[in-house]
Amino acid sequence: MAEVNKVVLAYSGGLDTSVILKWLQETYNCEVVTFTADLGQGEEVEPARAKAQAMGVKEIYIDDLREEFVRDFVFPMFRANTVYEGEYLLGTSIARPLIAKRLIEIANETGADAISHGATGKGNDQVRFELGAYALKPGVKVIAPWREWDLLSREKLMDYAAKHEIPIERHGKKKSPYSMDANLLHISYEGGVLEDTWAEHEEDMWRWSVSPENAPDQATYIELSYQNGDIVAIDGKEMSPATVLAYLNKVGGDNGIGRLDIVENRFVGMKSRGCYETPGGTIMLKGHRAIESITLDREVAHLKDSLMPKYAELIYNGFWWSPERVMLQQMIDASQAQVNGVVRLKLYKGNVVVVGRKSDDSLFDANIATFEDDAGAYDQADAAGFIKLNALRMRIAANKGRKLL
Amino acid sequence: MAEVNKVVLAYSGGLDTSVILKWLQETYNCEVVTFTADLGQGEEVEPARAKAQAMGVKEIYIDDLREEFVRDFVFPMFRANTVYEGEYLLGTSIARPLIAKRLIEIANETGADAISHGATGKGNDQVRFELGAYALKPGVKVIAPWREWDLLSREKLMDYAAKHEIPIERHGKKKSPYSMDANLLHISYEGGVLEDTWAEHEEDMWRWSVSPENAPDQATYIELSYQNGDIVAIDGKEMSPATVLAYLNKVGGDNGIGRLDIVENRFVGMKSRGCYETPGGTIMLKGHRAIESITLDREVAHLKDSLMPKYAELIYNGFWWSPERVMLQQMIDASQAQVNGVVRLKLYKGNVVVVGRKSDDSLFDANIATFEDDAGAYDQADAAGFIKLNALRMRIAANKGRKLL
Amino acid sequence: MAEVNKVVLAYSGGLDTSVILKWLQETYNCEVVTFTADLGQGEEVEPARAKAQAMGVKEIYIDDLREEFVRDFVFPMFRANTVYEGEYLLGTSIARPLIAKRLIEIANETGADAISHGATGKGNDQVRFELGAYALKPGVKVIAPWREWDLLSREKLMDYAAKHEIPIERHGKKKSPYSMDANLLHISYEGGVLEDTWAEHEEDMWRWSVSPENAPDQATYIELSYQNGDIVAIDGKEMSPATVLAYLNKVGGDNGIGRLDIVENRFVGMKSRGCYETPGGTIMLKGHRAIESITLDREVAHLKDSLMPKYAELIYNGFWWSPERVMLQQMIDASQAQVNGVVRLKLYKGNVVVVGRKSDDSLFDANIATFEDDAGAYDQADAAGFIKLNALRMRIAANKGRKLL
Amino acid sequence: MAEVNKVVLAYSGGLDTSVILKWLQETYNCEVVTFTADLGQGEEVEPARAKAQAMGVKEIYIDDLREEFVRDFVFPMFRANTVYEGEYLLGTSIARPLIAKRLIEIANETGADAISHGATGKGNDQVRFELGAYALKPGVKVIAPWREWDLLSREKLMDYAAKHEIPIERHGKKKSPYSMDANLLHISYEGGVLEDTWAEHEEDMWRWSVSPENAPDQATYIELSYQNGDIVAIDGKEMSPATVLAYLNKVGGDNGIGRLDIVENRFVGMKSRGCYETPGGTIMLKGHRAIESITLDREVAHLKDSLMPKYAELIYNGFWWSPERVMLQQMIDASQAQVNGVVRLKLYKGNVVVVGRKSDDSLFDANIATFEDDAGAYDQADAAGFIKLNALRMRIAANKGRKLL
To answer: Which residues bind ATP (chains A, B, C, D) (predicted)?
Structure first.
């Protein structure tokens, strides 16, 4: 077991990380620094302070990271229309690198030589935390209790908590059967009945959105204003990044938008089923594609599309803090210089429908595209040569008797 | 002007291609063979016979190609989860290579040395028809009247029709302001008010689907059975490919599914706006991803995803009958060997929601994925080494003082 | 025929472009501006002035573009280790965008509304010139005489020259049977005996290099110093970009380096055979890969490699002045920030052998790589977990009876 | 420590694997089956039998795998023109999957529950062996002594050998300072002086080839006959795959061909320097590109090129026995249907020069490619439209004031 002097713990204030806090103190006989972040998960972070103090923690960090999260992580990711495996908007994946970064910053500030987190040994999050930590502070020690300890069942955990007088909060509501994670971009559900891929998810699982059935019978229209690929205003009102996302979550959730039920491939090698609510993100993806559709060059758009799966995989697998992600990001960001304008969307019972897009940087040329007479803007005769030469290699091959199959 | 003896015309029986028929006879002083295909566009094809006969055509081909269309074109394309520019399901693109193939087959059967079609010089369809034709019969002559003649306005066309006694049918319904194209996979709309990208599409434009607002308040559940990536049964009932698609169009359209409004990039170089109704295709895309999610290896799935944009571009651009499309297809088809099983979907007011998937070939392993005790199926300690070596290059770099940005 | 007031002609001073000059004056009855560039082709450019004057040209541009050519075109291209179809170093392709750019700059300066060049209608160069011209000045008229006139045989051309008193220079040496093009990066040969792909190229065709057989029996060693991926010094002596390339051409050519004989695929659709001498470029490619091998992150290097074929294709096809090339370039350039250091090469009878590389930015860590005891720098036990999880998806599949073939 | 009943050991007969053999017997108290393969490494394999018997091994496998190695591994890999990181021909990587396969086949035949190998915990080979083993027999136990034992220095190893009376052979020649590995495709060198990336490799390190300096002053010409992308005859004489490679190694080595000195990126995360001799492989790569240059469609060739880095990475990283490698292989193999014909090469002092290529399946069309009059085979006027439409998106953008930079 590595010798550890001081460890920074990603601390939610909940039971699991409270047990970890105690376990670190006992097992490593070291000082623990707690770090609790408001990433928009919708729970108070301040209560974590008293809990940490009660366990003797002297250095307590509680940060509101919502603006940084959306501005420096969510928005850059959406510039690429990022979707993992055709469906998943990477809500959990994109929050981890920010937490890793803060853990290391705090380790540097407090002179800690280790970090710790509450992610299990089966999931992607351990990878995302630790790859980030190693990349930013290569000599850091990482303590992942779930990979080390023997408290592998809930009973043992509760026993440990009871034995060490760690308070177990009793919410009015029943303990959820799901493993959940939330931030401003999404809330995720795993485990429970979802471990049967044939079983339908339960309606009462969802927390952030009404069902399409329960959404209003009247559509909601919104206008998103883009600058360099990011939303800077909604319905003409300028908003900060976190405010944009919070607003879209609200209006999206109200309209039954953004629920997803998938089986995904984890980096550690197994398939797992997850359900996700991403109301704002679902709207953002649709809106961004729409504003790009009139402002982006075709080949730039296609190049971006061809690299997107790689970029999504990097984020999913935890390589945000890698030189290849940074390199791809530079290209993606460069492509957004003229992604400016307004998209108009209709939200209705789970549907996000593009109904208009306009931009001073639009490359749509009605004179050329028109079915009416274009007054010579486009010479149709050019098409004959264009086709002939595009076909030439195939004509030569066919002339020489080459068959396609 | 090329000398032409006999030309096979893709003939719909409508005004435009009737004018073309006459114009070909007059301009090239050649025999015309007509070819009319039922691709599921929802209009009678048989009436084309009498019209062609009335204009003196002796060789008239009227084919029901619906099964071939879905089996050999639509289904193979959906095996790749093909989407162009993030949105478009390629409904028009995928029908053109079949028409090209039949035009050439008929040319070979009838000894024709040329083909002709009614696509304009601004669009993608001319490219798709002609690339296919050249690839399959390299010496064929292609006559594209819209690139040659001077009948470029509707008035001139009508005058020509009147002068040559070509009957102009008056439907009860008003002439649509849109340029439309339909087949079993979709119906498309271009032109008219759509040429203003900011203008909302009109509700009465849509032909195949009710609006989500007008869809039933009760959800519809369906089960799709897959074999080698293709749907072979719905709700346990075996169906032919065309029947599958027709059924899904019906149930999808009834539930307000599959409308799309986009600005796309044409191969000939301009942006254009199109609206599409693809009820069945929208369901198929969602279902296919779901069955793949439990049956496909992760890296196979990611490799497919990374090549999909290229594959979609090939189809959009008209390169179906190219060796590179065939080569990609072989890889895609090979990946589908175990894409077998059943997907359960909920259809509700425009939404297609996956609610279950199962397969004898499932790679989902509940024992390993579980949040509960897995009885040693997975050794969490392995993750530490996995992460350490994945991080090694970044740790070395950071140790040497390398910064990420 | 388009109406033209003034045209800028890419003018070499040779027979062909002199005929074009006269033909433009006669055919378009317009003023001609000549532009002659020294790109390092090894021929005097100044004589073009008198010839142009003799034909009444008033605006004559003669530019030494060697530094700009290497600094802004050749060097950026080599940062990507660019090779077309596995072999070709793009010597011709990379010069064309610079000429296109100057043609347009001169057109803007002189108020010309057209440009003209001497490239044939079968080759890639017409595409490269014209795509660049259109991208930089979208309304420009392009006159490509070889696609327009009827002087398609050498006899007719000579007759035209004689008739118009265009002087035909008689070199001491016999007229080459090859179509050649040269600049500081390479000299190319096409046509003649090369049109038979089985015929061996003739030794006396080559102009810039001795054969390996005739190269010195003693090897030459050189050290290339890199900064941000570009060579800034040779054997410790700082040199400008053009001087670097000229020097490497000399030492490479002296050692029989850089000859190539290939069949390539042209953008216009046919295969053609070309022979190329690229002594300096061949050394640069080898050297650049070597300096990258110790300074570049693995995944950055692999990402670059995966995009290189696309980047090479863009340059070959004439899309240097396209947004997608610019976008790729930004990523490539960003990757070169730490590509600094020295490479030592041995040149011997056609061989370029890397014998050493060093860098303050090296990521090579002898302590970790060593076969000797590494004092704990690397924990071999990590590898077990790394392998286990990399294998997990395949173990699960095999456990479920999935076969690979 | 896992309980093991019987283990199959990849046994060379040398000191290291003899120590492992003994160590396995002692440590795991289990039966050991030895497997020794002739992959063309150039050493006798039969002596391994007596050594194994002397240590009490009852089941001894000695296989000549040369034909299988070249036919099923080397040849398929060369169909893709596979090169790792621009330089490395993957000589070691491609042999490992065959050994993994045989280890598992023997485990199945002998009822063994484990395999073992002598690869270290720092290298790629452990990964390649073990990924293959796990993919083919998911429940197999893997014993990698170098990751487990404490015999980490040569002294301890020698002490162990002495203590257990394992004979240490004294060759006449001095022990090489390099870690070497050989098979029919190549011989590799690592360690020793090579751990300094600036130090030149020593001439007396190389075993298989003469230096270019010492190669004959007379060039050697050979003709390679291809069928479906594989060499089936040399100079008109039909040969088996292994015979082809042995022949090319001989003639290549005699002409100083195939030496390489690189720094490469290992899958486990560090950079390492390796020197390689691959005489036959170097010739094969050049020859295969040449035969493809006349027989492969352009876009098929470019698609192959764009996927090659991924394919090379898969093989380098040990994923030969993965579904994604199999999937890529199907595409690659399909592309080779018409890669038939003859390539003529000149070998001279390290150089492999293509001097001719011919094929009944050639797509080279001299009539179209010619610089002479082509009698109308190609209409130069087509190029104007081709260029115009390729430029259209850029012209529109420039017209709207869009700048490239």
So the answer is: 10-18, 37, 118
Do residue C303 and residue A327 have CB atoms under 8 angstroms apart?
yes
Å from D347 to nearest chain B CA? Answer: 34
pLDDT tens digits for range B83-127: 999 999 999 999 999 999 999 999 999 999 999 999 999 999 999
Contact B353, A203 (CB under 8 A): no
Set of chain A residues whose Cβ sits within 8 Å of the Cβ of C323: 297, 299-300
The rounded distance, in Å, linking the Cα atoms of B180 and B16 is: 13
Catalytic residue of the set C176, C179, C293, C322: C179
Residue C376 burial by Cβ neighbours in a 10 Å radius (0-12, 13-18, 19+): exposed
The 3 state secondary structure assigned to chain A is CCCCCEEEEECCCCHHHHHHHHHHHHHHCCEEEEEEEECCCCCCCCHHHHHHHHCCCCCEEEEECHHHHHHHHHHHHHCCCCCECCCECCCCCCCHHHHHHHHHHHHHHHCCCEEECCCCCCCCHHHHHHHHHHHHCCCCEEECHHHHCCCCCHHHHHHHHHHCCCCCCCCCCCCCCCEEEECCCCEEEECHHHHCCCCCCCHHHCCCCCCHHHCCCCCEEEEEEEECCEEEEECCEECCHHHHHHHHHHHHHHCCCCEEEEEEECCCCCEEEEEEECHHHHHHHHHHHHHHHHHCCHHHHHHHHHHHHHHHHHHHHCCCCCHHHHHHHHHHHHHCCCCCEEEEEEEECCEEEEEEEECCCCCCCHHHHCCCCCCCCCCCCHHHHHHHHHHHHHHHHHHCCCCCC
Specify the DSSP class assigned to residue D143: E
Instruction: Report chain A residues whose CB lies below 8 A from the CB of C327.
Output: 300, 303, 331, 334-335
Percent of chain C with pLDDT over 70: 98
Q: Annotation-wise, does D124 bind a ligand?
A: yes
The one catalytic residue in C38, C66, C79, C96 is C96
- Give the 3-state secondary structure of residue D1: coil
Q: Is C125 annotated in the active site? A: yes
Which residue of D lies nearest to B393 if distances are taken between CA atoms? D269
CATH 3.30.70.1120 applies to domain D6-163 = no
- Sequence spans of domains, chain B: 6-163, 179-296+335-358, 366-398
The question of whether B125 is a catalytic residue gets the answer: yes
Question: Best of D330, D338, D361, D390 to disrupt the B interface by mutation (most B CBs within 10 Å)?
Answer: D330
The model carries a pTM of 0.97
Residue in chain C nearest D325 by alpha carbon: C404
Average pLDDT of the residues in A35-62: 96
Task: Read off the pLDDT of residues A185-222 as tens digits, 9 standing for 90 and up.
Answer: 999 999 999 999 999 999 999 999 999 999 999 999 99
Nearest CB to C383; choose among D81, D126, D301:
D126
User: Per the CB < 8 Å rule, is A330 touching C334?
Assistant: yes
Determine which of D296, D299, D402 to mutate to test the interface with B (most B C-beta atoms within 10 Å).
D299
SS (H, E, C) D382-404: HHHHHHHHHHHHHHHHHHCCCCC
Global ipTM: 0.96
Instruction: Report CB contact under 8 Å: D363, A297.
Output: no
Which residues of A form the catalytic set?
16, 96, 125, 179
Of A268, A303, A323, the CB nearest to C299: A323
DSSP line for C59-115: -EEEEE-HHHHIIIIIHHHHTTT--BTTTB--TTTTTHHHHHHHHHHHHHHHT--EE
Angle at D21 between CA D16 and CA D27, to 5 degrees: 115
Of A270, A356, A405, Cβ closest to residue B369: A270
**Looking at beta carbons, which residues of chain C come within 8 Å of D273?**
364, 369
